[in-house]
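Researcher: I need the complex structure. Ligand is NAP. Inputs:
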Amino acid sequence: MADKTKVALVGIGKIALDQHVPALAASPDFTLAATVSRRGSVPGVEAHTDFAAFLEARPDISVVSLCMPPVPRYDYAEAALLAGRHVMLEKPPGATLAEVHALQALAAERGLTLYAAWHSRMAHAVAAAKAWLADKTVQKAHITWREDVRKWHPGQDWVFEPGGMGVFDPGINALSILTEILPQPVHLTAATLEFPANRQTPIAAQLAFTGHVTADFDWRQEGLQTWDITVETDRGPMRGPMALRMGGNVLEIDGQPSTGQNSIMGEYPALYARMADLIRTKTSEVDLAPMTHVADAMTLGHRVTVDPFHF
Ligand code: NAP
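Model: Output:
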């Protein structure tokens, strides 16, 4: 069996520890060879604190997976590509669209793989929903993405700083699914964005798109958490409605469970399998459609000021 490809994980925080480390431990393609993080580390794995020094010291590690928040990520990605490494980006792939385009161009110029990962697209029922919709015309769709920021991002003030995207940090997961499953593309026509009086990014958003597609994102949801997309279509034999629940993990047709399982633990192993394919085939995958919708909402959105938010 061929040796596994060495990966360095950079930015050892919540998502690196929750998902990347277990996915790499189970990967048939990759092995976690080093971490780079100012404070974080993984027991038993070589730990660096300075990225430039790491790149210099470990030329044998050909893949770098970047898990820090979007604003600092560009500098790391650029340095990694300039040092000849393949790069995997957590979602959202950057703080701006233009910086991701610049990374795309650099990766292409250097013949390296750049993978802008969208973990929610790997949820259990997304491919089945896409296949079910493929021969239908969508008449109406609605996203309800309501969760408790205090539960999922405890103390993570960066989400409310410029570039942190606020409620679009989870909302972009819904948009990554929407843009994957819809047979016809849509674009944003209106948005209302609710900004806490003491914060730089929205805590809630209501979006309208062409094709009667709407979205309701809210980060103040206590109790029951909802990550649903419902879709009404034109024709039978099964007209739907179709519902993707639990963040794309459960598919319902006409109110009956069709496929899926209520766990996100398959998403990150699937992302690393995709990264392995991309490297093998010397290609990149950078789909900016979900982030374009967020940028459009920020451009076109009507701003409403709401109560200050404190963790
Ligand atoms: P986090 O725990 O707040 O941050 C991850 C790590 O990034 C930190 O531990 C920190 O490590 C490093 N970091 C933070 N600010 C930095 C800076 N200015 N420069 C360099 N490194 C910095 O965030 P997270 O929840 O893991 O999220 C990271 C990314 O993953 C985000 O884009 C998020 O959307 C995505 N994601 C998160 C989740 C989730 O459930 N949290 C799920 C899916 C995807 P050091 O201080 O040790 O350097």
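Model: Summary of the prediction. The two ends are 49 Å apart (CA to CA).
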